[in-house]
Amino acid sequence: MISKIKIFRLFSHLGSSTTPYIHKGNNPLLNKLHYLSLNRFCTITRSPTTAESPELPEWLKFSQNNNPTGSDSDDDFVIPELAHWMENQKHDHGSKVEGHTLKETIDSDIDKISKLLKFRHASVDDFVHALGGCGVCVSESLVEQVLKRFSNDWIPAFGYFKWAKCQTGYRHSANSYDSMVDVLGKLKKFDLMWELVEEMHDLGGYVTLATMTKVMRRLARASRWEDAIEAFRGMERFGVRKDTLAMNTLMDALVKENSVERANDVFLEFKDSIPLNSRTFNILIHGWCKARKMNNALKSMEEMKQHGFCPDAISYTSIVEAHCNEKDFRKVDSVLNEMEENGCPPNVVTYTIVMHALGKGKEISKALEVYERMKQRGYVPDAAFYSSLIYILSKAGRLKDARDVFDDMTKQGAVPDVLTYNTMISAACKHSQEEDALKLLVKMDENSCKPDLNTYSPLLKMCCRNKRMKVLSALLNHMFKNDVSLEVGTYTLLVHGLCKSEKLEWACLFFEEMVSKGLVPNDSTHKLLLKELEKKSMVEAKERVEKLMSQARQQG
User: What is the largest distance, in Å, between two alpha-carbon atoms of the chain?
Assistant: First the structure.
């Protein structure tokens, strides 16, 4: 539990001055950051305009072989996927890029493969040819890492997969096939995806429910709901049983992609031939609540009882969450009382949802009271609860309190997870606390907590906003090394941010990189980039962007 002293401080609204949690020091970058008000409940978020620091802090060295800092103040940068492009513009094919040095020492198989796959080739077969004679020994772990690193770039990923399959003494595992199926589905290459599934079937025993789960989820994600349902109907042809788990998986995929009506159709079609369980009904309850169709949710709960299943904490929590989304806390209290009366008390997840909703509604005191209520019930907060508490405190401008909760977690037996770090990083970025945000990223490395896209998004946005090009370069390299692949959302963030910062050349390069991966830019991104190029009379660049957008639409 959070210590009593901490809780007292959280409830306290005394305006006593305290030392801001960003400390003063001699670091030139830190001294240029926005300093917090001495009032620890300060909500100031704006940062004074500062020049780009000529050097990254000494501690910001993500690896010994990858330090993108340089000796001058040029703020141009290069991302890993574009490293080959920049190198090809240099006669010496070296690593010096516009005034600062990119050190890319290849010291492992994944680095060797990645360097080859960074070069753009027109086809999968071209990548297969390019990998010939690379001298890398293929292993299942290497295949998994490559497919993860290039999970949003299907042509090099599939090229590597096909090349690895032909190597002497190696055979792809079922897991590797599943990963490749997922990559193809993610990029909506469904014909190739199905060809690979057929190949797995021919190998015998390779197609499992895990395979079909990826297929169904990717089809549903692409709004091809009927195709997802057909995949379920025909899965027995591949030797996969249509059982309760499989049906629930399909229904869950449909609900997650906002098609609870089709999930209900699946339920009606198969309820007499496939055994049901409580999860079947909970999926529907959650789906109806998500769609704000409370009468249907309550009907599903009644039907759940008719089939001999008692509504559990998961069932009620979906109802609680729906009322929270409507900010109807009177009904929230009513459902919580009903849970108690029915011998199904709220759990940590329930309390977390209620606290989070109250916090978002600026009911900070009531949100903190939820913790007290939970503590009285004997529940121990988990990482998700702490993440929510940190979020609402940060949103209220109580950054010192948020940091105290973060620091207190480990002492209370809760280990910060990626969501916790993401919440802290997002808050730091929002308040222009650049060095603190980056130090949290370094701390994730130290604690073996793997970052994800949500870790990097606020950092990248902050760098674009503040024109921190060298820090942006370091972050993009860090993403690549952590096998976090850029997708449409991240490219959109970068193009928009760079346009606002008048870094149009780099915005164009990101736009082109996005299209080269088979991704289709949003219309808003396309229009913004054209508008900014027109303002600067960059006619050739504007024409190039138009051609790229036409190409993207054709291939999409």
Answer: 77
Cross-strand bridge partners of residue 100: 97
Q: Count of alpha carbons within 13 Å of 545, Cβ hemisphere only?
A: 27
CA neighbor of 355 nearest in space, from 344, 371, 340: 371
Q: What is the pTM of this model?
A: 0.79
| 87, 49 Cβ separation under 8 angstroms | no
Q: Report whether 156 contacts 117 (CB < 8 A).
A: yes
How far is residue 389's CA from residue 359's CA, in Å, rounded to a whole number? Answer: 8
Tens digits of residue pLDDT in 120-161: 788 999 999 999 888 889 999 999 999 999 999 999 999 999
**DSSP label at 152?**
T
39 strand-pairing partners: 17
Tokens 């050349």 correspond to what residue? Answer: 505
Which distant-in-sequence residues (6+ apart) come within 8 Å of 400 by Cβ? 18, 20, 21, 40
Tally of CB atoms within 10 A around 540: 8
* H or E, element range at 100: strand 100-101
d(CA 330, CA 365): 16
Residue 380 has φ and ψ, to the nearest 5°, of -100, 125
DSSP 99: T
Residue located via tokens 């590597």: 160
Whole-angstrom distance, CA of residue 408 vs CA of residue 416: 10
Distance between CA atoms of residues 54 and 522, nearest Å? 34
Residues 419-478 have pLDDT tens digits of 999 999 999 999 989 889 999 999 999 999 999 999 999 999 999 998 888 888 889 999
Euclidean distance between CA atoms 360 and 357, whole angstroms: 5
Are 160 and 118 in contact by the 8 Å Cβ rule? The answer is no
* Contact assessment for residue 371 and residue 381, using Cβ atoms and an 8 Å cutoff: yes
